[in-house]
Amino acid sequence: MPEGSPIHGGQRIRDSFNKVLSTMPSDGKTSFFGEDMPSLEALLIGGGFEKYRARQIWQNVYLRKVFEPAKMTSLPLALREFLDKKFEFTSGKLVGDRRSADDTGKFLFELSDGRYVECVILEAPDESGGTRKTLCLSTQVGCAQGCKFCASTMRGFKRNLTYSEILSQALSFVDSVSGKFLFENIVVMGMGEPLANFDNVMMALKILNDADRFNFGARRITLSTCGLADKILQIARMDFPFRLAVSLHGATDEVRSRIMPVNKRFPLEKLVPAIGEFSKNCGRMTTLEFILIEGVNDTPEQARALAKIAKKLHAHVNLIPYNTVSGLEWRRSPLKNRLAFAKILKDAKVSCTLRREKGSDIDAACGQLALKSSK
């Protein structure tokens, strides 16, 4: 997508579809989700079917969330067979899952080329006394960013996911009776750097959010980045309705460069203004993610430096206990250090949350997703 191009509510998804089509596997099928209503109607007419059937198909897919033509029983058999030959509805197969002691679920997807990605569903209490489920999506097989504390980088970058493969993770979690998603929020912060797979990620989020499609609220979707300042500026100049989280993890260039190679390309003097422009143009508070690692970034000096950045940006800070990754040297910051760090932020009138550990016993916590079964 050219820098600065807007994604307006009325813009056809097919425009983006044409740009990412070349990244999709060539198996004779195209993704159904690249179709808008006019193109679907034209396709059906060309295949000898009635135009009104397009609306029936649309309702099956987007309202009932049925992704197998054979189960679209309101359609004639010939049309179901036509759809099955023409379209791909899901492009990832759920082949494994694990459940942690705290009810975090980790799910393994096999892709069409035999590679694998993982996604996670986290549960947390909500304000009504119930639970809120958040789906953490992956966007790449592996990751090229090289963050020193993260398992996703350990076997290197393999490839980007197509928008259909990103969507497939979400479409696997639907209540078969109600047709509702089995989660309330989406965070795009699983395996991979979302902004390094820009077009496919934007396409997937647009399809999820589009009022004529899945109508999943934009404020319930958060996109996370390790700090690609040029891409943050790009979305700042778009009609970008989603929330943004930036993995900072270091409040000075010295500390951040030690654990995040991306800081050499986009040091804080470039990153912080880009975040500021996003907040100003999009009118949303940014979240600064900060994993606390013992002896690296859990010092009072880092807390004070972080407070200055957060106040300048009017950002919320999410403090995350480091989750152990086998083969890496880092250790979690002790609880007393984490509490002291949070107190410095709060005393400085910075909005912050000290996150509870979730899913670490099944390697599903922040920074622990890795290529454990792939080519």
Kindly describe this structure.
The two termini are 30 Å apart. Strand 3 (92-99) and strand 4 (105-111) form a beta hairpin. It is elongated, with a radius of gyration of 21 Å. Helix 5 packs across helix 6, helix 7 (229-236) runs parallel beside helix 10 and helix 11 packs parallel to helix 12 (335-347). The strands form three sheets. A ten-stranded mixed beta sheet has the order 3-4-5-6-9-10-11-12-13-14, with helices on one face. The model is unreliable at 1-26 and 358-369 (pLDDT under 50). The protein has twelve helices and 14 strands. The protein is α/β, with parallel strands linked by helices.
Fold blueprint:
Blueprint: H1 13-20, E1 30-31, H2 37-46, H3 53-63, H4 77-86, E2 87-88, E3 92-99, E4 105-111, E5 116-125, E6 131-136, E7 140-141, E8 159-160, H5 163-171, E9 185-188, H6 198-209, E10 221-225, H7 229-236, E11 243-247, H8 253-259, H9 262-265, H10 268-282, E12 287-292, H11 300-313, E13 316-321, H12 335-347, E14 352-354
Parallel strand pairs: 1-2, 6-9, 9-10, 10-11, 11-12, 12-13, 13-14
Antiparallel strand pairs: 3-4, 4-5, 5-6, 7-8
Helix pairs in contact: 1-6, 2-3, 5-6, 7-10, 11-12
Describe this protein with a few key phrases.
single chain; 375 residues; alpha/beta; DNA polymerase, domain 1; TIM Barrel; 2 domains; ten-stranded mixed β-sheet; two-stranded parallel ribbon; 12 helices; elongated; disordered N terminus
